[in-house]
Write a structure and sequence with these properties.
This protein has 83 residues and is of the alpha+beta class. It has helices spanning 11-14, 25-33, 37-41, 47-52; strands at residues 15-19, 21-23, 55-57, 66-70.
C-alpha cells in the first residue's frame, strides 16, 4: 500500500520528501535555536518540522541522502507494525 492519499485534504501535512542539508554542528545548533517547539507544533503546517528532520552534520555529506517523511496525523497506523 501507499501512505500517500491524494484524495485527503491534509496530504500536504502528512507527506514530505526532501534532500538532506548538510551543515556544521554550529549551523545546526543555530537553526535549532531559531524556532521553538510551539513554532513546530502549531500553525497548520508540518513543513518547518519536516525541514528540521532534513539536517545532518557535514561529516555525512558523502551519503547524498534523500528522506521520505510520513506523519500519521489521522492515526491510520496507530498500533500497527507497518510504520
Amino acid at each position: 500500500g501507499s501512505f500517500y492519499d491524494e484524495s485527503a485534504t491534509i496530504s500536504a501535512l502528512e507527506n514530505f520528501i526532501g534532500r538532506v542539508d548538510y551543515k556544521t554542528q554550529n549551523d545546526i545548533a543555530s537553526v535549532a535555536k531559531s524556532f521553538s517547539f510551539a513554532d513546530l507544533a502549531h500553525g497548520g503546517s508540518n513543513i518547518q518540522f519536516a525541514r528540521s528532520l532534513l539536517l545532518k552534520r557535514e561529516e555525512f555529506r558523502h551519503e547524498h541522502e534523500v528522506r521520505i517523511l510520513f506523519c500519521d496525523t489521522r492515526k491510520r497506523y496507530l498500533g500497527s507494525d507497518i510504520v
